[in-house]
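At this stage, I put together a protein sequence along with its fold in C-alpha cell form, as given directly below:
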Amino acid sequence: MPKESSPFINNTDNDKGNLYDGKNMALFEEEMDSNPMVSSLLNKLANYTNLTQGVKEHEEADDDEGLITVPALGTLIGVYLPCLQNILGVILFLRLTWIVGTAGIMESLAIVVMTCSCTMLTAISMSAIATNGVVPAGGSYYMISRSLGPEFGGAVGLCFYLGTTFAGSMYILGTIEILLTYIVPSAAIFKAEKKEDEAEALLNNMRVYGTCCLTLMSLVVFVGVKYVNKLALVFLACLCFFCFICLLGNRTLQNHNFDQCLKTMEVDNVTVTTKLWSLFCDSPDLNATCNEYFTLNNVTVIQGIPGLTSGVIRDNIWGDYGPNGMLVENKHQASEPAADTSQDIYMPYVANDITTFFTLLVGIYFPSVTGIMAGSNRSGDLRDAQKSIPIGTIMAIATTTFIYISSVILFGACIEGVVLRDKFGDSVKGNLVIGILAWPSPWVIVIGSFFSCCGAGLQSLTGAPRLLQAIARDGIVPFLQVFGHGKANGEPTWALLLTGGICEIGILIASLDAVAPILSMFFLMCYLFVNLACALQTLLRTPNWRPRFKFYHWALSFLGASLCLSLMFISSWYYALVAMLIAGCIYKYIEYRGAEKEWGDGINGLSLNAARYALIRLEEAPPHTKNWRPQMLLLLNLDSDHAVKHPRLLSFCTQLKAGKGLTIVGSVLEGTYMTKEAEVKKAEQNIKSSMTTERTKGFCHVVASSNLRDGFSHLIQTAGLGGMKHNTVLMAWPGTWKQSNDPVSWKNFIETVRETTAAHQALLVAKNVDSFPTNADRLGQGTIDVWWVVHDGGLLMLLPFLLRQHKVWRKCKMRIFTVANMDDNSIQMKKDLQMFLYHLRLDAEVEVVEMHDSDISAFTYEKTLVMEQRSQMLKQMQLSRTEREREIQSITDSSRSSIRRNNQTGATGSESGPIRELEDTQEDEVAQLIHDRNTASHAALNDKADAGPDRVHMTWTKDKFLTERNRNRAEASMGVRDIFNMKPNQSNVRRMHTAVKLNEVVVNKSQGAHLVLLNMPGPPKNRGGDENYMEFLEVLLEGLNRVLLVRGGGREVITIYS
C-alpha cells in the first residue's frame, strides 16, 4: 500500500506532484492545500522553537555557529535569579537605611507592603497572561500589546522603554555615587572648598563620571550582549555576599577630618586642642573665638549600632521628616541652643540634602521592587515558560519582600536613628551605612553593591534597545521604524544610540533621588496596564483566554491596577500627569497615524461587548424626537472600473453628519455573488478609499444582485443592525435619465423613492451633486434657502442647522420660504412661522411667497402635450420591438418545419449541412432573444399593471403570427395618427402648471443661493405616470444649481420642547 504523504501549510512546488497518494482521506484531498492533515500540523508544533531575538541567537550569529539549540533554562536560573538580581538593586544599598531613619519603622513597613503588594498582584496578572499561550520576544510589551491592542501596547511599550532607560541612568548614578563617596573620594574632579558647595560639586562629579560610565557601558553592549550575560553571573555572586559616632550636643558631626571625638585632650600633662576644635574655632589656641553652639555644648560618643537589645527600636518607630538643610539630631541628647544659628550651614554637621516627606520616599523606594519582568522578558530562553514564569517570579517577589521587611525591622532595631538618617555615611567616616554591618569588612558590601549596580546598568542598556527594536519592528509607530534596523546579526545599533541619549538626560539630572520617581511612574504605568489586560480578558471571557496559571481573579487584577494608579499619584502627582500625558499622546498618535494591526486584543472584545449591550438597549424603544438625527444610508453608483461616480456625495454626507451618528455607504453590482465576489471586494476597497479621502466615517456594504432594483431594495430593508439602523436615504439625481434609451435608470430611481416611503424612511436627493462643495472648500457669505411647501416632519428645518455646524457651511445664513395661497393670511403666516422658529431655537430669515391663482398658460399646455406625446411614442417603439421579436420566432418555426420535411424525404448530407447550419444560427438568435427578454428591466417584467397580452411568451404559429401582425400594424398606424391628434390629460396639465409656477418663484428668489432645499413630491400611485413624474421634477428644478430634494419619513424629527 502506498505511503500517505502529509502536506504542510506551505508546500514547495516540488511537493505538488505527489500531493496526496493515499486513499483513506480522499474525500478531503481537494482542500489539503489550505487545510493540512492533523498529523502534519502537530509535527510542525512539536518542532517549534520559541527562541527570542536575544542572547543566544546573537552569540551564535557572532560565533558563526550552526544550528540553534532548543533553550533549556529552568525556573531557578532562568527566572528566579534574574528577578532576584533585578529587584535587589541600588536602592537597597544606598537608600533603604535612610528611608527607615527618615520615615520610621511603621511608615517604612507601609511603603514596603504597598509596593510589594503592587508587584505581587501584577506578577499574578502577568503569570495569567504569560501562561495563556506562547510569549515570543518582547516580553511585557508583547503581552500588553496583544492583550490591549496596538494603541495601548505602543503607549505602554514606550513607557516601559523609557522606564528601563531611566533605570539605566539610576543604576549608573548609583555606581558613580558608590565610587566617589565610598571607594575613591579622592577621584573627584570638582572639589568643594566650602561646605555649602559640597552638594553642587557632587552633582557635577556625577555628571562627568556618569557620562563616561554610560559611554563605556554602551560600548560593551555594542560589542556584544554575550559579555553582559557572562558578567551578570559575576555581579550576582558579588551581590549575595554582604561604630561609633560623634555628637555635639544633640547634633551629628561629619566624621571626616578628625580622629577623636574630643574638644581638648591631655598630652604630657598639657591641654591641647584637637582637630575637632579647629573646625569650630578660628585658631587652635585655647583662647580662640569659637562657634557659640560649640562653646555651649559638649561632645558625646555614642554607639552607632547598639544592637537589638538596646531599645533603640522605640526611637525609630516613627519618622523624622524635615526641610532641606535641617540638621540630623538625636532628640534624647541634652543640648543648649545657640542664639545665632546663621553659621550652622558652614559647620561640619550632618544635614538633610533634600526636603523629606512620605510621598517622596514612596517614589524613591519603588524602583527597588521593579524587575519582576526579568523572567517574562527571557521567556524565549526557558525550557517551559508557562511553568517557570509564575513560580520563579512569585518566589522572587516573596523572597525580596521578606528581605525588605526584615531589613526594615532589623535596621530600625539595631542602628541609631541619626546614623540611619545620615544618607552618605558622613558620621561613620564616609562609610556606606549598610556596609558597616558587613563581615568581615565593609568593603565586601561596598564592592558588591558597586558591581551589582554596574550589572543592572548594563542589563538596562541591553534590554531597553531590544524593547524599542521590537516596538519599531511591529510598525505601529511610523516615526520609530528606523530604530528597527541594526547590525547584520540583529543588534539594535540605532536603538542603542537613542537609549544612550535618553539615558544621558537622566545622568545630567545627576541626583538619584530625582531620577528614581521618574522611572517609578513609567514602571507603575506598565504594571497598571498588565493588571488591566488580565482583568479585561477575564471579565470578557474570550474563548482564547485559557491560562495554565489558575490562581488569578479579575478582582485581584483590578486591585493591583488601583494600587498602581494610587502609587503614581502618591509618589508625585505632577510626574504621574506627565507620564499619562506622554502615554495619551502616543496612544492618539498610533490611533491616527499608526499601522492597522489586528491582534485579537481585549479592547476589540470590550468594544464588541459594549456595542452589543448598547444595541440591545437601543432596540428597546425607538429614539425620542429630541434624540433624532439622520442615520444615513448612502446609495452610490459605480462606474465600469467600480470607482465611485459621485465622490461629492460622500463629502456632502460628511458635512451633514459632522462625524456623528451612523453612516452606511452601499452600492449594488449586477450578477450573482459567486461570479462577482472579486469585483464586490474591489468595489468595497474603492469605496473605502473614497471614504477616507472624503473623511466619511462609517461602514461600507456592496451587494451583488440579479438587478439593481432588487439590490437597492435589499440594502434599504436590511442595512444596519438592531437599533443602529438607518432612517434616511441619500442618493444622487439620475441626471442622464432623458438621454438614456434604457428606462431602467429612472424606473429604479422611482422604485427607490416608493420603497423609502413604504419603509417610513426619509429621502434626500441631491441634484447636480458634482457641483457641491468639497470638505476643503469654505463657502463665503451666502444663503441656504429652504422652500417649505408641505410639512412632513420638520426635516427641512433640521438639515440646514446640521449643515451649518460644519466649517464648509458655517458662514451661510438660513432663509425659509413658505408658500401662501389666495385665501391664506400671509402676514399672520409670517408671524406664526417666526414664532415657530424662535421656539425651535433656529436663527433664520422668514419670507412668505404668495402664489396667485392664474390661468394655465399656453406654454404649460404645450409642455404637457409634448411630454405625453413623447411618452406615447416610446410605447409605440416598445410595441414595434415586440413585433420584431415575434417575426424572428415565426421564421424560426418555419425553418424548423422545412428541416423536418427535408429529413423525412431523405435529403443528402451535402444538402442537409447548410440547413443544419441555418438551424444552429437561428437557434442562437432565438436563444439570444430569450436571454434579452429574461434580462429586461425588473420593473417591466414584474409590474402587472404594464403586463399586457403582448408580454406573454408563447410559441406562435404562422397563421396566428400573420393575423396578429396585421392587427398590430393597424393599431400602430392608428397610434401614430392619435399621437398628433391627442389632447393632454387635465391632471397632468395641472401638475405641470404647479411645477412651472413654483419653479418660477424659486428661481426668482433663490437662484444665487449656495443650496436650495425643497419638498420632494411623492411618485404617482399609478405606475403608468412614472415618466411624467420625472418630467415634473425636471421642470420644478430647472435653472437651479445645487438642489437637495427632501422627503420626510412620516415622523416628527424636530421639537420645540427641551
Remarks:
- The chain is about 55% helix and 10% strand.
- The longest strand covers residues 812-820.
